[in-house]
Design goal:
homodimer; alpha/beta; six-stranded parallel beta sheet; 14 helices; 12 strands; 47% helix; elongated; DNA-binding
DNA sequence: ACGCTCGAGTGAAACGTTTCACTTCATTCC
DNA sequence: GGAATGAAGTGAAACGTTTCACTCGAGCGT
């Protein structure tokens, strides 16, 4: 069995309480005693048992973060932001990947609650989850990431997707494009609908008729392969568009591949814009113009909000933070 | 405060022990009693406190997985494999991202040991780590991922990189290439050195002189940007190579971009091969030929090995599993 | 009617910490 | 000189489980 604080106490010739003090408030114990205890810890290879500590303290210094898909660079950056602020405040982050499966999300929520994490950051699979509501009801602070709670009874951090669509739209229109394809994922995804709405607003704002300018291509998933197939199909049919605005960079990468493989020059024959500004966007065969979301900041702010709520559960007021996206111009437009 | 097993016991009118039995060995308690207890649990919103459970049980049903970089699809797949087998055996996985910083790795090892995880899967930042050795000495089973322990005193799972380099080399030679650039990361990375060694073996095996066929381009990092820059430089100088073999797909993506931006046709003017077969490889502007590693299987086997060791610490014998890579041919060659 | 076995449930000890009221002893103050 | 103060350390209770030796009856065969 691993040595306990008691073994350390015996070896150092002090009481258990003193060892605990050395561990938690070193300044409360005299220099020489501390040295002895530290030596004993070292000799025995003692490692504190955090289960016991937590049980007694009643609270853990850790947060849960449940993301939809760790393969997605967006969430990777969010996680980075969360870890940044959490670890700087001495919190550990338990990272969970729901893989967009409600069942996995439920299991992780259960585990996190059993571990008595201080709070949970989550991008839920479904708009509302019974288990998540229960967690909140029982008093665990929760922050929604890249989602908003219509009932506004918890904090959330998201990005203004309408503004992002508008940014892209205004830019493409300013470049003189009169026929724009919008490669969307399933319209059920709020992000897709919002980005299209922004695009339409931009076109309308320029005095054009969105219905004749925009050609919506709805695809079944936001993946490169799908973008490629959808673009090939569009090219084969009529396809007199001069620009493609894609609901995310993966789709855009697929469209780029379709363009290259059919001998179209980018941006001369076809301008391409992505969304998200993932790392690969800058390194694509033709570096992609895109809409950047302040992903790391999203994570940071979400974590800050959560910890703020943990520290002041009484005075805390829920906030809905909304970030503004940013236009990134590269060679594909 | 959250309700405890005791509150449940009172409410259901049974003893604490019975509630515990309902939770852990439901078959040991009579149907009707069980129903009452379950009802009480539901009404109170009871959630078991895993700190207490672990403290008492002395052992947790969780594993630690420390990877170098969650942004790297390789590790993402490994994690998937680990989670697959862990969760099917009722274990939870604590996912940690060392970001190639020894300091972070150390912190995570500390946290995992404090949590008394059953075992640790790790791709260490440095070849040897004091803290990792200590962990092992204290009896926590450990499995190395994508690394080998020269002293063979723990299990490891890796892929034969020499074989992978050879696969690529033989293929390129069979295509008639007589001048091949090898874009390597820092030679200090074993993978890079091994892949080059394999390439040289293949060239030699074909009766050619590796020194005159192979042009080694050592780069400071395995990133797309770096590959782009290195390739531009190579093109500017002499650059009479007809094929580029890259130590990983990111580098290859960069080389592809350089080729496209300088008007070279791929594969006619320059054939490009990557390594890893990440998801983006298939969806690049020109789909990349690559060497595929059975990443998910690596994770699965590593987890299996670890759990095997956890279950039979006495009889367990350390194994060094070595997977064979596979050639994937696409349009870039 | 007797001893047995068996299923169902009980109660208390134990896990390794943290915390807090308390003791000791030396120093300071008037 | 005696009380007051403060620093250093002590010891035991408490946290919420799991586990195990135990009790209590009911049902069984003879």
């Amino acid at each position: 069995m691993a040595p306990s604080i008691k073994d350390v106490a015996v070896r150092a010739g002090v009481s258990i309480g003193t060892v605990s003090n050395v561990l938690n408030r070193p300044d409360k114990v005299a220099e020489s005693t501390r040295a002895q205890v530290l030596a004993a810890i070292d000799e025995l290879g003692f490692v504190r048992n955090s289960s016991a500590a937590q049980l007694r303290a009643g609270t853990s210094r850790s947060l849960g973060l449940i993301v939809l898909d760790m393969a997605n660079p967006f969430f990777h950056d969010v996680a980075k932001g969360v870890e940044d602020v959490a670890s700087s405040l001495g919190y550990a982050v338990v990272l969970c990947n729901s893989d967009e499966q409600a069942g996995r999300e439920d299991r992780y929520l259960q585990v996190l609650e059993e571990q008595r994490v201080r709070g949970v950051l989550i991008t839920p699979v479904e708009v509302s989850s019974e288990r998540l509501d229960a967690l909140r009801r029982r008093g665990t602070p929760t922050v929604l990431v890249d989602r908003h709670d219509p009932r506004i009874d918890c904090c959330s951090v998201a990005v203004d997707d309408v503004a992002g669509g508008m940014l892209a739209g205004e830019y493409l229109v300013s470049l003189g494009h009169k026929r724009i394809a919008f490669f969307s994922g399933p319209m059920g995804i709020r992000q897709c609908a919002d980005r299209l709405a922004g695009l339409r607003q931009a076109v309308t704002g320029a005095g054009l008729d969105p219905d004749s300018v925009i050609d919506v291509v709805e695809t079944p998933a936001l993946k490169a392969r799908i973008g490629y197939e959808a673009a090939r199909e569009l090219f084969d049919s009529s396809g007199q568009v001069t620009a493609a605005f894609c609901a995310n960079d993966l789709l855009a990468l697929g469209v780029l591949r379709a363009a290259v493989s059919t001998g179209r020059r980018v941006p001369d024959d076809l301008a391409i814009m992505g969304y998200d500004d993932i790392e690969f966007a800058a390194d694509a065969a033709v570096p992609l113009s895109s809409i950047r979301q302040p992903t790391v900041d999203i994570g940071r702010d979400a974590a800050r909000l959560l910890l703020e709520e943990c520290d002041n559960p009484e005075t805390h007021e829920h906030q809905q933070v909304m970030f503004e996206p940013e236009l990134v111009i590269r060679e594909s437009t």
